[in-house]
């Protein structure tokens, strides 16, 4: 018998990806998966890609989850805290939502609304010292998808004193799965295909998380909805605080990390190369006109940006190799 795991919110895109990864994990035994409107449905009726997995979705309540050793909460933002409060104190939890990411209660109220539920250990193992904190934690707040993409590109540059934390600009394009599975007119195929559209300009909820994780004091972000199901491509620019090579700083920072890859000179990240993987691809250069550093970062928003990252954290929390059950390599074409 392996480590018993359960997934709440298994009918969503991130929940479905979690089920796929857990079904193939050598040490995790998937014992329960819950949903709201899809409760009672066989998993293959909700996620056809999981045909062959004998699992029926049950209603989301604490009783159905409490028998697990570790629970993943793949619920909409603002819904995890109430369920987590009903689960046993010693039960390990990885929350894929935003409920426990922010340290500042006022920022939570400003960007999400309602009362702040508290702060859990932040789930990005590649940040300095974070891997050790995750390994000893019972409660982990998984990194947001945009935040993971930008933080991996920026945090080492600010930590090294190379990037000016007071002037960071991000333009990031994301696939439609990042908006969740609920039906919305702006996410219909006819609306998205052949189109790029900005949204939440100047007020995206991941900005305070990015600042908290990277040390940036001013960060302007323009998110763009792209006509693809999954993937994020972020272009991060910043002024130099001192002379140095941003690409070398990133290469040194991630030299021993399995999932973050600084690409060879002249090779630029693209989302398709990270599809289905838990990897983030980075490249850096200096703009010949403005003198600003430019870092381009790509990852799968359902992989390293959500479910893959959650499994990576769960591996650490369970005393397992953090790469277990996760692929470094993307799926192409």
UniProtKB/TrEMBL annotation:
Residues annotated as domain Semialdehyde dehydrogenase NAD-binding: 4-135
Any Pfam family: Semialdhyde_dhC_1
GO MF entry, a single one: N-acetyl-gamma-glutamyl-phosphate reductase activity
Active site: 145
Keywords assigned: Amino-acid biosynthesis, Arginine biosynthesis, Cytoplasm, NADP, Oxidoreductase
Residue stretches in coiled coil: none
Record's subcellular location: Cytoplasm
Known pathway: Amino-acid biosynthesis; L-arginine biosynthesis; N(2)-acetyl-L-ornithine from L-glutamate: step 3/4
CDD domains: AGPR_1_actinobacAGPR_like, AGPR_1_C
Record has Coiled coil as a keyword: no
Function: Catalyzes the NADPH-dependent reduction of N-acetyl-5-glutamyl phosphate to yield N-acetyl-L-glutamate 5-semialdehyde.
Annotated family: Belongs to the NAGSA dehydrogenase family. Type 1 subfamily.
NCBIfam families reported in the protein's UniProt record: argC (TIGR01850)
PANTHER family given in the database record: N-ACETYL-GAMMA-GLUTAMYL-PHOSPHATE REDUCTASE, CHLOROPLASTIC-RELATED, N-ACETYL-GAMMA-GLUTAMYL-PHOSPHATE REDUCTASE, CHLOROPLASTIC-RELATED-RELATED
Name of the protein this chain belongs to: N-acetyl-gamma-glutamyl-phosphate reductase
